[in-house]
Cytochrome P450 (Actinomycetospora chlora), 413 residues
Amino acid sequence: MTIEHTDPAHADLLGAEAVADPYPLLAALREHDPVHWSARYRSWFVTRHDDVLAALRDERFSSDRIAPYRRAKLDGPDADPAVRAAFGVLEGWMVFKDEPDHKRLRRLVSRAFTPRSVTGMTATVEEVAHELLDAVHAAGTGTVDLIGDYAYPLTASVIADMLGVPRADREQFKDWSDQITGLVFGGMGDPSRYAVGARGMTELTAYLSDLVRDHERHPADDLISAMISARDDRDALTHDEVIATGILLLFAGHETTTNLIGSGLLALLTHPEQLRLLGERPDLVGGAVEEALRYDGPAKTVARVMGEDVELRGRHLRRGERVFLSPSAANRDPAVFPDPDTFDITREKAGQLGFGIGMHFCLGAPLARLEAAIAIPAALARLPGLRLTGEPLRWHPVLLSRGMQRFPAQFTP
Ligand code: HEM
């Protein structure tokens, strides 16, 4: 462990060691510099549970971070029109809006994305999981990439199915979603990511626009139709809002849940006593998913922009400055979770912030929990003797999310 890794003064969450294991650095920040100014990222990093919780509930920590960027960088004559249009779609996402615009969108979308629509997906999730595991067996190699062969196609299929995207278009749909990742999550060392992301966004928007028009004429039992008809006595979603929200759900519903299935399986495979316990007590699966979210969840940080000046622990956060609130750090805060670095599927559940909290609390949390609670035990049951291969695991080098690029494993066919 180098000094750069744990010395808050040199904190770099995108350094190689911190990408592989961010927890020592997050612990050092939480303990010694809980409201940390990073000159490198020109941003604040907030790591204590009580501060992250309070900030997520505080409207002065604004979610409206796309429009200011667009105005500053993309309204000029030199800006690429495709990138400007792509950011225009992101601007329509509820997750990037403050009140009252956020509440209006969330209210209408919640009429379509209901708990019943999620429980209705149970059989589909089971079916897709088993199809993918059949394919892993059919390959006959006794090896599997639990991300690429399993978690990723599973979550992509489920959300595409829920939205009402025809099966034949799935591969294309998945490629566009991958391209857009660079726009939303950012990353290092890939200057082409805006151009690639914008192209994916343009094509996906055109595709969904046709699909929405088709659903307007021929409603079906799916989320796009439900969003088209979602209205209350005051309001309804516009055509463009249905498209933008469709892209948000596709995107939010897919990458993060992939990461949760991956890190949940990883935590179990590296804690054999917890794996054994889950085998003996399958009823603990809900606790295992919750603990995976806490112990190594997908939301490393959640971004905000200061809407006003705020003083926090003696530091002055000024209007317009960027802030990363870290659920990953908060979820290992010893002030809230005894023995926080221990993975314990019987742990008292309350308090983890892996889905955020407050007005932007993850709308898809019930779907993510359902998918993980089916996918994790299905893989363990169908891939006997599942174990790591010993190859080093490679993690996505991004600030916002925590997830493996590949998860190679072996099993006894
Ligand atoms: C394990 C998987 C998931 C994790 C860890 C996760 C995490 C989060 C977090 C931390 C937020 C809050 C963002 C903020 O405060 O700025 C959020 C919001 C959101 N998530 Fe998820 N999410 C997951 C799965 C899903 C799924 C499956 C869907 C939908 C299909 C979804 C849809 C959304 C939406 C629409 C929002 C915005 C809510 C709002 O702004 O009111 N998420 N998610």
